[in-house]
């Protein structure tokens, strides 16, 4: 019975040491990671740049889709025209 009580005491001591160490480590990380406001990039600036790139990508995609649609429409019109006319008149 005496040995089970000592295991509990050792476990409690280890738990207390872990809590102290984790608390100290978190305090060191918090003070070590503070970046002055002057050297931090503006969040709004990053969001604006991201939105600008996204808009450019959308414009490119829209242009490519428009060009592709125009090509497909011309191809369909040509097929319809060729189907209506005999091949001898196309030469």
UniProtKB/TrEMBL annotation:
Location(s), subcellular: Secreted
Record keywords: RNA-binding, Secreted, Signal
Any single GO molecular-function term of the entry would be: RNA binding
Signal peptide region:
1-27
Which superkingdom does the taxonomy of this entry point to?
Answer: Eukaryota
GO cellular component: a single term: extracellular region
Q: Among its keywords, does the record have RNA-binding?
A: yes
What is any Pfam family matched here? Neuropep_like
InterPro entries xrefs: NICOL (IPR028147)
Protein family (similarity comment):
Belongs to the NICOL family.
Q: What is this protein called?
A: NELL2-interacting cell ontogeny regulator 1
List the source organism: Poecilia latipinna (sailfin molly)
